[in-house]
Amino acid sequence: MSSSAVASKRLFHEYRTLTNDPPEGITAGPVNEDDLFLWEALIQGPEGTPFEGGLFPAELKFPKDYPLAPPKMKFTCDIWHPNVYPSGDVCISILHPPGDDPNHYEHASERWSPIQSVEKILISVMSMLAEPNDESPANVDAARMWRERRSEYEKIVRENVRKGLGL
Amino acid sequence: MPEQSLNIPQLLAVLLITFFAIRWYISPSTTTHSSNSSARQRRGPRPEQIEQIAQMFPQLDRRSIGWDLARNGGNVGATTERILGRGLDVPPLNFQLPAVSTASPSTSSTPSSRHNPAASQPKHPDLITRYNLGSKVNAPVEEKEDISAGKKPAWSGDKAKRQAELQKRKEEMILKARQKMLERVEKERKGEGS
Fold first, then answer.
1. pTM score
2. What is residue B29's DSSP assignment?
3. In order of start, what are the domains of chain A with their CATH numbers?
4. Marked catalytic residue, from A28, A58, A91, A157
């Protein structure tokens, strides 16, 4: 009970910060304030990448012991990216708790800790869109295409961007 | 005779094994398999049910809803409770929604994303459909000049106002992005033409 109260308080605070001072290209907040543990975010595709101009909705599910444990993030749109599972689940080091990486791909400093925040996650995901991490792909097909057939990869990404905006 | 006394248990064992082998061979094809597939056909999720839940929880993916309904035999109440409780599971990749043309009643100006049976990726409705912005798409976005200038979204002390403000910000963001993309598409088309 108390840990969930701590989490609610922190999430509410982060919501306020993000509302008053939103980072460029990011809008995020609880789907419904009655449940602070489920958020929706809209992330703009970074400029100079095939994701440019796109808007990508994602949901964030926070655990009751947030910020000790990281949230889970999932894109709720079609997104073709080496670090996003076909289900939409995002695989990025900041969403992994420290000590959770048996392969030691990631430095502890890149991973989740209570000093991180929703804002930092969303910004990291934005830069992940621009620069996929090839080391441990979540979508193997997308990763292979990104490596070997870049123009085809970019074409799919651009198509998804337009479809996502209903064009 | 030692040879014969050895042979009888061996014979028995062979008979026993054959018996079980035949039984195992026959039973899965007659009982479990057929009842399984008929149950699935009978009680698969109906599109109306998925639609009903998707309207209550627009943030959810229709495939996840369909998957949950498929598993609980099309029980809308149970799925709703699960969503409110611990949330839905991610459906397996090979799970397909029943093929229907999900023509959304509210928005007619945009083609809703169709379910492509060949694609292994889940299909999501576009943002215009999801946010019900069909009616606002063609209206000019009010004065986009001050995209960067001022107009800081202030935090409201009132919960309902905050909620409405957030919704408005998201809608504006979507409409602006669409507008920009539309301009870009047209520019490209012109560039190709000339």
1. 0.63
2. I
3. 3-164 (3.10.110.10)
4. A91
Strand ranges of the sheet holding A55-61, from the earlier edge strand across to the other edge: A26-32, A35-44, A55-61, A72-75
pLDDT at B111: 40
What residue segments make up the domains of chain B, in order of their start? 8-106, 127-193
At B63, the amino acid letter reads R
**Burial annotation B33-65 (CB, 10 A radius, 16+ → b, else e):** eeeeeeeeeeeebeeebbeebbeebeebbbbbb
- Name the residue among A153, A23, A14, A15 with its Cα closest to residue A84: A153
Contact B137 A166 (CB under 8 A): yes
Tens digit of each residue's pLDDT (9 = 90 or more) over A100-151 = 556 666 666 788 999 999 999 999 999 999 999 988 899 999 999 999 999 9
The two beta strands, A55-61 and A35-44, are antiparallel
Q: What is the mean pLDDT of chain B?
A: 73
| Angstroms from B187 CA to nearest CA on chain A | 14
pLDDT tens-place string over residues B35-80: 444 444 445 678 888 888 888 887 888 888 888 888 888 888 888 8
